[in-house]
Design a protein that fits this description.
The complex is a heterodimer of chains A (143) and B (143). Chain A has 143 residues and is an all-alpha fold. Helix content of chain A is 71%, strand content 0%. Chain A has one domain (6-138). Helices cover 69% and strands 0% of the residues of chain B. Chain B has six helices and no strands. Chain B has helices spanning 3-24, 30-37, 46-66, 87-103, 107-112, 119-142. Chain B starts with a helix and ends with a helix. The chains are: A mainly alpha (143), B mainly alpha (143).
Chain lengths: 143, 143
């Protein structure tokens, strides 16, 4: 169980939107994390901004986490490894095939009023809800 | 100053904001995400406010940014060119949602959580990279 945390959720959302807006305004790039990450593997001349944005993201998340005890949470201990691996495969496969994730389609695509991103967001929200409900309530999988 | 250096610094800074937002909003905690997707459980609506806050910023700011002829430190805006729906987009989004709903990680939070020095995000990110590679191979074979 986790508590509803409206203020930190909203403030965090504003930071995420601000970071995405800043990246577009300064570099002209879309802050879609799956696309930025997978683009690292392709040998082109645009690796540097990807690396720097991701490094900033990891550092920003890590520094705040380690400095703010109230934001820390205990790691899951009984989550099945096989579920984690299957989930990672599906997320990698799906976001590459569908050209985006929660940030690219959700945060940025909706901001651009993209019909494709709206459709993608509705689809992954729906399959996400169905998957969690089915695994937790019908199959009784931990998590 | 060299525009390339300024643009790189901007990417790093915007990534830091984005990552701090992920930790502040607690989206780096997969249980928080699953408790949003699990609408039949003890529902935690926080994710809706994170998404709402982020999209509120991009909905207002993206059109203002894109009104300019080019980004501050770049030659042009790099925006997705496709505007019509296709099966690849929807199938990809559906697969992504299933993976997201299984473990509670999407690409941004999974990468950001690498900074916590825990095993779970690392396993997930490696599986995600493999999933993306598989999708790339599948697309190559179809092309």
């Amino acid at each position: 169980m986790t508590d509803f945390t409206p203020w930190t959720a909203l403030a965090g959302g504003l930071l995420i939107g601000g970071g995405a807006t800043g990246l577009l305004a300064t570099t002209g790039r879309i802050a879609g994390i799956s696309g930025i990450f997978f683009g690292l593997a392709r040998a082109r001349g645009d690796r540097l901004w990807r690396l720097l944005f991701l490094a900033g993201m990891v550092a920003g998340a890590g520094v705040l986490f380690h400095q703010a005890p109230t934001l820390q949470f205990a790691p899951r201990t009984e989550f099945p490894l096989v579920t984690l691996v299957v989930a990672g495969l599906l997320v990698g496969f799906g976001t590459r095939l569908g050209n985006g994730c929660t940030s690219g389609h959700g945060v940025c695509g909706l901001g651009r009023r993209s019909v494709r991103s709206l459709a993608a967001t509705l689809v992954f929200m729906l399959t996400g809800v169905v998957t969690t409900v089915v695994t937790r309530h019908w199959l009784g999988v931990a998590g | 100053m060299n525009p390339h250096i300024v643009s790189s610094a901007a990417a790093l800074f915007c990534g830091t904001l984005f990552g701090a937002g992920l930790t502040l909003s607690a989206m780096v905690n997969p249980e928080k995400v699953l408790n949003f997707l699990d609408v039949l459980g003890h529902w935690d609506p926080s994710l809706a406010l994170v998404m709402g806050g982020a999209v509120a910023v991009t909905l207002v700011a993206f059109p203002l940014v894109l009104r300019r002829p080019r980004p501050w430190f770049g030659a042009r805006f790099h925006l997705p060119q496709k505007s019509t729906l296709d099966a690849r987009l929807l199938i990809g989004a559906a697969f992504f949602g299933v993976g997201w709903g299984l473990a509670g990680y999407c690409p941004g939070p999974a990468l950001a959580a690498l900074s916590f020095g825990r095993l779970e995000p690392l396993v997930f990110v490696l599986a995600m990279a493999v999933g993306s590679w598989i999708a790339g191979r599948v697309q190559q074979q179809q092309a």
